[in-house]
C-alpha cells in the first residue's frame, strides 16, 4: 500500500465529473487500499478518487469512534434519496485549514458497488450522511465551497494540538 499525494483546490481534476469504474480489477483493488491508507494518513473521514488526481467514481469513507463505521468502499455510487435539511460546518482534505457552513441532508440513501462488485445500499444520518453527500459531490466535480451562500467564504481554522503526538488532526 502507498500514501498518495492529495490534490488541492483549484486543481482542475477536482472540478470535473468523474468517469464510471468499468472493471473492478487488480489495479482498482490496489487503488482502494491506497485510498484507505491515504485517508487514514490525512486523518480524513472520506476520500474520493479525484482528490488524488484520478477521475474515477470511487470513494472510501470511515467514520471514527464513537460511531465507528467502515471503511466503506463506494464504486459508482448514486444518491437514491435524501430527506431533511440541516446546517453543518464542513471541511475538506482538498482545502486544508478551512471550514465553511453549508446545508446538508438529514438522511441519505446511497446505492453503490463494493470492492467485490456486489451492489448494496447504505441508509445514513448524521456524519455518515454528510460524508456520503460530500464524497459524491467530489465525484461530480463539486466542492463544499460551491454550496456556500453567495458572498460567504470558508474561515481559517487553527490546528488542534494532540497531546499524544503533537500532530495536526
Compact summary:
With 169 residues, the chain is α+β, with helices and mostly antiparallel strands.
Return Rg in Å: 15 Å
Strand content: 25-35%
Low-confidence stretches: 163-169
Q: What is the general shape?
A: globular
Can you tell me the number of structural domains?
1
Counting DSSP H or I runs of 4 or more residues, the number of helices is 2
Instruction: Provide mean pLDDT, rounded.
Output: 94
User: What's the arrangement of strands in the largest beta sheet?
Assistant: 1-2-3-6-7
Total count of strands: 8
Terminal-residue CA separation: 22 Å
Class by helix and strand content? alpha+beta
Please outline the helices and strands.
Elements: H1 26-41, E1 46-48, E2 58-63, E3 69-83, E4 86-91, E5 98-104, E6 107-113, E7 119-125, H2 126-139, E8 155-156
Antiparallel strand pairs: 1-2, 2-3, 3-6, 4-5, 5-8, 6-7
